[in-house]
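Check my protein:
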Amino acid sequence: MQDTESQFWVNGARMSQSGSCDQTLLEYLREVGLTGTKEGCASGDCGACTVLIQADSEGAYKAANACILPVRQLENQGVLTVEGLSELGKLHPVQQAMIDHHGSQCGFCTPGFVMAMAGWLSTDAPLLDDDPAQAGVGGTQVVEVGQESREAISGNLCRCTGYRSILSAMTECMTRPKIELRLPWTVPKNEGHGSKAAKSAAGPQMNQRFFQPSTMSELETILDQFPEATLIAGGTDLMLEVTQKQVQFPRLISLIDVAELQRLELKGDTAVIGAGVTLSHLKQVADNAWPQLGQFLSRLGSPQIRNRGTLGGNLGTASPIGDLLPILLAMDAKVRIGQSSGVERVVALEDYLVDYRQTLLRRGEFIIEVELEGLNDFHRYYKITKRQEDDISAVGVSLRLKLDGYKVIESRIAVGGVAAKAIRLRHLEAMLEGALLTRQLIAEVRESAKISVEPISDVRASAAYRRDMTANLITRGLEAALGLEQPNVYQVQMHA
């Protein structure tokens, strides 16, 4: 069955793909001989396949995992791989610093580290101004590597170096002016990124296997004709079906360009978050308007995952360990759902989540956005993982309290990882509402929490551990509300 071609650029060269609609960018790159991008885990965990994506002619470069990125989603976008990083035979400063500081041993993970570092340094790092006159003597200054720079490589794993030499390379690069760290342009400037409108205007064709609508109206038309098609946003979870289980999707409908799904409004005590909003964009806004969420999102996946993953994806997969689901439950989220007929409905998230990875979504329906409340309340969000960054939670706890002094007016406690779906612990909420928050009450809630859940044992944690952690995290949140917050081990500063 023939399909229309997808056109995009790789390292400045125009490329096309008309094969499988679920072919990954990693597979494509290696087929065309760009083997510097490696496959380690094929699940977006190790970062060996990291490339940089430029979504528009003026846009920044965003790191992404090529192993779970459908190449067909790159229509009119640019891709930069490690082969395209150097210019005119001169290594990029990150490449040279990795050599100088012995940041590579076996070398397998190195291209991924290099691309993640180069992307972050070009867009997010606290670097010098382009004007050397403003940069101090010699145009350089010493910048200490902080949590942000470590976060830049939190999606990359190495089994050889222990990271110290890699961070040393990062430190050196951070002393350079931005102009030296600019990346090669992925799309010829006289070409432009173009528009997807022409293909959309033609309407869905019976032989078409991949669709990328730009409006909700187009999405509804496609769904009306192909209600059995699979919806894909960032693909950070869905594409594991392809790479881990060898599932083949006969038709995919990409949601990443649908403008109406990009709404993001955090105002006062309420929020509206579109299903297509990426986690990195949400974090950027939440850092100021919703700090607890912004802080939590730094532990949701990695920069590569957050740059592609969306709120709608977390809701659509409905995994019981989905990091956002307990938070959304605690914030009384309502899910706005659209369908191919154009009719919409709004349901409470608690009702939307039916069972293990099962939701109220019917064939031909899609998530438009969620509505939240309580941004001005007290809230704490926690997750327990085996490693600090880029790991799946064994237990997640979210707590929101509306307080009058220490009197609890309203409470929400939601947990993930302890049942077939994320749930609210309503009897604990009832214990708190109307009561004065005291150490004695917290102790009573803690004991009740231990018998509130019946988790399973699996490779991540035993049932007993999950039960204790649920009680501990709820206690920790309540103590914080009482003014007794304790730092976690990663916040403790070690002094000689």
Summary: DSSP finds 17 helices and 19 strands in the chain. Residues 146 and 296 are 17 Å apart (CA to CA). Residues 463-481 form the longest helix (19 residues). Residues 128-144 have pLDDT under 50 and may be disordered.
